[in-house]
Task: inverse folding
């Protein structure tokens, strides 16, 4: 629907033209809303699959989201530079930089703890609740920032015609509602205890081995 809005009413997307700005909302919605939400749901949707497979998929989706969001940021800053517009003056831009920075830090820490080999199991266990909390928080902040940007774009482009129920405004309002519903649906699935990944027998055995090793005992010392 974001692509339909930009294509029908904003002229589409082209990097080397005035349409470069349109790459920003499309990339941010795809990256920091859609793909980030999908990445959060990996452990729910594939809760019975091998842990390593779901972990790699979770990490890859976050990488794709980060790269696409970075393209969106480059598009808006480059567009502002070419047009001589000011940067980072609106609430939307402040929230956007905050969200992207938090998302990047969250990815780095998550990679270091859960994908990079050698991280102590005890540290992983202690950090996991914080990782889940910050992941959900950053996702909700991303949805809220997208709604702020959508509202800002409509006020800039439509002005007084926004209150006259212009078709573009109606379509964009529906898009905003869908973004909010998507965020709520992801949060609901994440908080459902019966959809959480069950602990597999081999994972429990591996956890006990890591625990005994980090505590200085060997599995066969008793």
Result:
């Amino acid at each position: 629907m974001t692509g339909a809005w930009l294509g029908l009413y904003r002229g589409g997307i082209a990097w080397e033209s005035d349409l470069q700005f349109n790459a920003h909302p499309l990339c941010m919605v795809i990256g920091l809303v859609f793909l980030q939400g999908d990445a959060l749901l990996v452990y729910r949707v594939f809760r019975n699959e091998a842990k390593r497979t779901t972990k790699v998929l979770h990490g890859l989706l976050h990488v794709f989201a980060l790269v696409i969001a970075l393209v969106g940021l480059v598009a808006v800053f480059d567009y502002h530079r070419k047009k001589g517009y000011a940067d980072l003056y609106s609430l939307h831009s402040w929230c956007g930089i905050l969200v992207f920075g938090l998302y990047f830090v969250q990815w780095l820490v998550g990679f270091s703890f859960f994908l990079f080999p050698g991280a102590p199991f005890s540290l992983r266990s202690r950090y996991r609740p914080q990782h889940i909390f910050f992941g959900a928080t950053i996702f909700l902040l991303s949805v809220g920032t997208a709604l702020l940007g959508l509202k800002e774009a409509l006020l800039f482009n439509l002005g007084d015609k926004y209150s006259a129920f212009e078709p573009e405004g109606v379509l964009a309002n529906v898009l905003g509602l869908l973004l909010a519903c998507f965020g709520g649906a992801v949060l609901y699935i994440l908080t459902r205890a019966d959809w959480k990944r069950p602990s597999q027998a081999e994972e429990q055995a591996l956890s006990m081995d890591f625990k005994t090793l980090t505590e200085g005992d060997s599995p066969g010392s008793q």
Observations:
- Residues 5 and 155 are 15 Å apart (CA to CA).
- The two ends are 61 Å apart (CA to CA).
